[in-house]
């Protein structure tokens, strides 16, 4: 096919519409390029439940094997299950998924051995260059000896590893509603929770990459309405939603009210610090709540603030030896999971914390949810840089205010802060604001939006 790789090779992955933007022959070239760039003798490959995933995954495997790599295919899996396989087998890996994108999309998330991410600066640019070279001339020459293709089931091993990292043996009985959104959570959750004193109420566990019930993106409030209603109807203790590839989890309490990912980050951080003797570094991005670094310090840890984005989190995890990292987007990273993100492990921590005491989830998380937050608010603008410059000028001279530009513009005052940053893919500015009370937060939110929107 004639392919425009600039449209499908993103900062951290490959993603586009199938077959319009990419197809199996192109996936085969990506497999060959992946082997060439990593130099791997062996690789591990998995895929989600999208209709196009098995064919694309097998094509990639053929491409890698033709270059001499022995390929282990683990079949249907969540993204964090692929990371588990990459870490446990110490092999470079590729996961075929488009996460929460619509059904006609698919993509490849690639990593080096030990689940180390492959992005533009760590191999993806070279992979793209090789594929473009082959598209312009001819397919790559095969290796003198082709690699093998073997299948392996890693689901139980993945579940056992997660269960080894969280003590759930003595929790009280819980009733949990889990919305898999027809994604890979429907495949992994029954095995991971098997044998625990948890009454599981499954929602949309049927694997269906056409997403017949709702988009598998729990950060959009519209997509957790069914979960919220079911939690209330069942009188459940907790509700958990996973995205399409089940690497992110979102939590609602017994009332069906959302628990902010910052509160989950703080709760898990406190538990990971306790598990590590009350010491350790915790990474958080700059738009998580003030409560996160506060809770980390209160529990003996050292908080480290980073830019938004999993590549920055993973770099800082590796650089600092951090035990845990969390983002506002419900991505949670663990040192003992090869610094990779796993929503399932975060969910197990929340279940363990809830089941380890007698109170409801709302009371448990209240200690970690201390401020009034705006949530992320997007504004379409013609001139992102110009709007940010105007915003900076408006706040630069104010007393008791500090500015930094680690990622967009962050302005901090004693009683509030906000961050505005540009989207990399759309003409948007994203605002997050937080304050010590709702009135102050609303005031600063509206002031900033008026400046952003002109």
In one word, what is the shape?
globular
Mean of pLDDT: 96
* Low-confidence sequence ranges: none
Q: What's the quaternary structure here?
A: single chain
So, the CATH homologous superfamily of the largest domain? Alpha-D-Glucose-1,6-Bisphosphate, subunit A, domain 3
**How would you sum up the major sheet?**
7 strands, mixed
Number of strands: 22
Helix vs. strand class: alpha/beta
Please state the CA-atom Rg, rounded to the nearest Å. 22 Å
Q: Based on the coordinates given, report the CATH architecture of the largest domain.
A: 3-Layer(aba) Sandwich
If you had to describe this structure to a student in words, what would you say it looks like?
- There is one protein chain.
- The chain is α/β, with parallel strands linked by helices and about 450 residues long.
- It contains 15 helices and 22 strands.
- It has four domains: about 5-155, 3-Layer(aba) Sandwich (Alpha-D-Glucose-1,6-Bisphosphate, Chain A, domain 3); about 155-255, Alpha-D-Glucose-1,6-Bisphosphate, Chain A, domain 3 (3-Layer(aba) Sandwich), CATH 3.40.120; about 260-365, Alpha-D-Glucose-1,6-Bisphosphate, subunit A, domain 3 (Alpha-D-Glucose-1,6-Bisphosphate, Chain A, domain 3), CATH 3.40.120; about 370-454, TATA-Binding Protein (2-Layer Sandwich), CATH 3.30.310.
- Helices cover about 35% and strands about 20% of the residues.
- The strands form four sheets. Strands 1, 2, 3, 4, 5, 6 and 7 form a seven-stranded mixed β-sheet that branches. Strands 17, 18, 19, 20, 21 and 22 form a six-stranded antiparallel β-sheet that branches. Strands 9-8-10-11-12 form a five-stranded mixed β-sheet, with helices on both faces.
- The radius of gyration is 22 Å and the shape is globular.
- It starts with a helix and ends with a helix.
